[in-house]
Amino acid sequence: MSSYRQHLYHIVFRTKDSLPSIKQEYVNDLYSYITGTIKNKKCHLYRINGVENHLHILTDINPSLAPIDFIRDVKVSSSLWMKASCLFTAFNGWAVGYGSFTCSFKDLDRLIEYIKNQQEHHRKISFEQEYRSLLLEYGIIPEEKFFP
After folding, report:
1. Dihedral class, residue 86 (left if φ above 0, else alpha if ψ from -120 to 50, else beta)
2. What is the per-residue pLDDT across 48-99, written as a single tens digit (0 to 9) for each?
């Protein structure tokens, strides 16, 4: 008998101090790099997208990996790559924290669309508003000291 699994995570992290340092003209290079990192960890990326100050990743995480280690590795390797590439000259690193939310596979299409439409979404609301909403949606009470 085979083993089956689906460990779907919606991960969100922002740039240090939420500075708009992810140049949109080079995001495809960044997304390709992160996609390679995720594939190398034998995980499946469903969607990645973001705006100038944060990223969303929807991925299946291999059960041999602890989510905290997976997220740390993605953040560290992408930060090093962004600085070395010289494409993101204003990038000063990722913020210390992140959001990591387990998701139901039945919500996959809705989440893919949500992540796909980040540019449109952020014409209406800020990252802080979005993040607060996500925390509440996933049953987490936001610590107001982290919100301006």
Report:
1. left
2. 999 999 999 999 999 999 999 999 999 999 999 999 999 999 999 999 999 9
Residue pair 115/45 in contact (Cβ under 8 Å)? The answer is no
Beta bridge partners of 101: 10
Q: How far apart are CA 38 and CA 65, in angstroms?
A: 11
Residue of 107, 124, 106, 9 lying closest to 56 (CA atoms): 9
Phi, psi of 144 (to 5 degrees): -60, -20
- Which residue, 111, 106, 105, is CA-closest to 137? 111
Tokens 């992160």 locate to 34
And the tokens for 44?
A: 């499946």
